[in-house]
Every structure is written in C-alpha cells, then in structure tokens.
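2024-03-11 09:14:02 DEBUG pipeline.ingest accepted 1 chain
2024-03-11 09:14:02 DEBUG pipeline.ingest length=255
2024-03-11 09:14:03 DEBUG pipeline.predict start
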Amino acid sequence: MKLKFLGTGTSQGVPVIGCTCEVCTSKNPKDSRLRSSVIVTTDENKKILIDCGPDFRQQMLSNHETHVDITLLTHEHNDHVIGLDDMRPLIFKSGKNIPLYCSPRVGNEVKNRFPYAFADERYPGAPAFDLHDIENKPFHVLDIEITPIEVIHYKITVFGYKFKNLAYITDAGFISDTEKEKLKGLDVLILNCIRKFDPHPAHFILPDVIKLFEELQPKKLFLTHISHHLGLHDIEDKQLPFGIHLAYDGLEINF
C-alpha cells in the first residue's frame, strides 16, 4: 500500500492570500501547501481518499489520479468536506455513488451542505453519495481493516485513521491515553502541526508533536496541516529531531 499527500496545508492554504512573508513568497514548491488531504492506494489499486476539501479538483489533476473508490471524512469543517461536489466527474464516469464513511454527526452536516446530493429525485448532473456511519471501532472495507482514532479538535471529536502500521491524524489538539495505545510503535505516524510556537486551542504545535514522538515512538513521524508560521520547508526539515519530517504536497510513502 502507499499513501500520497494531496495537500499538507491549513484551512487557509499556503501561500495565504495577501501575505508577503518569506514562506508565502517562497519559490520552493515544497512551501506551497493545498488544504490537507491524502489518498491511499491499496495493493489491488483501490483508492481511499481521506477528506475532500476545496482543492480536490486541482489535487486530483496535479497528481494524475483518476478515480476514488471510497472516501473517509475526518470531520465536517469546510477545508475537509467542501470539495465533495467536485467528485461529480468520478461519479459520472463510474456510474456509481461514492461511498462516504464518517461519524453520524459528520454525515448529517454533509447532508445539510449538499442536500441536492441526497434528494429523492436529483437533478441531472448532481453528485450522489452513499453515507456509511462509523463509530470508534475497526471496520472492514475493500478487504482491509481500518481503525478510527478519536482525537479532540477544540471542542469536537475528529477521526484519524489507521491502516496496517500507519496512522493519519489531522486537526487534533488532544489525544487520550486510550487512543494513544492504538498509535504506539507504528512504522509511520502522520500528525498535524500548525506552527512552531504559541499554543493553539485546536491544533498541535511543534513542541506537542515532539513530545508525542518521544512517547509513541513511531519509526517515522510526518507533519501535515502546516501553516506559513512553521517556516521554510528546507530549513525547518533539517532542524527537526531524527525521525521527524515535514510532509509536502505530492510526497508518497510506501507502507
């Protein structure tokens, strides 16, 4: 299996509109970050998308991805779901509804934002989804086991997802001891890290992530959901402790 980062930025993306900081004006493509999303490719070439934000169309085209078999949603914030309408070409091509796996709360929000996708009589050209409610326990789809990881993002619960010995977590500011047990000793752990300094009410910052790395001891830790406040990729990546890396758009990991 492999995981590709379609986007590694925060809700504003990088560069930020109107910002002239050294990150936002950098010519290094690794400093340009679309909204956070990944696509997992199984051994049978099935495609699992995690989150579908406002950059979905651009991400699929830039990475030469042509289909999605299922979509996992972490939570309902717009930078993680608002691109769902852009799945229409994939739905039309396959002739099938796209299955969405998420918590019931997130599913209700998706219905509220895209009511035309769930109408009894949809207008021609509307997207179509099959909602599958999941809870905080492993489930099987596409012949693989997926384990949700429940984390806290300010005051709401968010699901990360674990496949084999890799886990992907975005938009987290707290992980309970119970959920940490699912994350110990992984080959690859992916965590959000919004900036280097100044505690954030909803996201991990770099000292939080380093502490979790020492506690959970994955072989490799990749940072995602990165803002322009974290610094230039090529400088900051070299300064991270051994085993911790900055992810960037287009990076692919085999696992």
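2024-03-11 09:14:41 DEBUG pipeline.report The helical segments are 56-62, 78-81, 88-94, 104-113, 177-180, 206-216, 233-239.
2024-03-11 09:14:41 DEBUG pipeline.predict end
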